[in-house]
């Protein structure tokens, strides 16, 4: 099972980033939900991943992109996690979070199944990308260590 996900980690991560980006654009441009300040930060960490992972798919090589994408996803997940906690009321909204030019970060446009909000969707997307790419990174490191061991034995 891990072998399957390590081989498909980049395409799966690309699809997750693409769906998250298109979903984000749908909510703001078609559904008319104005993004708050924290939503913009989450977009900053998700949107470039479509390009990075797309190029990696095309070039078929990209261990450095894996590190970059994991870094972007960890930061994005922290922001999305904080945003979710703010929306469900576990974290008080700071005055800087509700600036005059956007909606309040605590405003919920979507609430499905009693817990799924837009920040939870973003958090899930970031977590999926992190998981897929960590599996890929581990498989790559195992392959490098195996090749090094085989080289030293001969």
UniProtKB/TrEMBL annotation:
The chain crosses the membrane at residues 9-28, 40-58, 65-85, 113-135. GO terms for cellular component: membrane. Gene3D superfamilies: DsbB-like. It is found in: Membrane. GO terms for biological process: protein folding. Keywords: Chaperone, Disulfide bond, Electron transport, Membrane, Oxidoreductase, Redox-active center, Transmembrane, Transmembrane helix, Transport. Pfam families: DsbB. It comes from the Bacteria. InterPro entries: DiS_bond_form_DsbB/BdbC, Disulphide_bond_form_BdbC, DsbB-like_sf. One of its GO terms (molecular function) is protein-disulfide reductase activity. Signal peptide: none annotated. Its main location: membrane. It is a multi-pass membrane protein. Belongs to the DsbB family. BdbC subfamily. NCBIfam families: PRK03113.1. This is 2-oxoglutarate dehydrogenase. It comes from Candidatus Wildermuthbacteria bacterium RIFCSPHIGHO2_12_FULL_40_12.
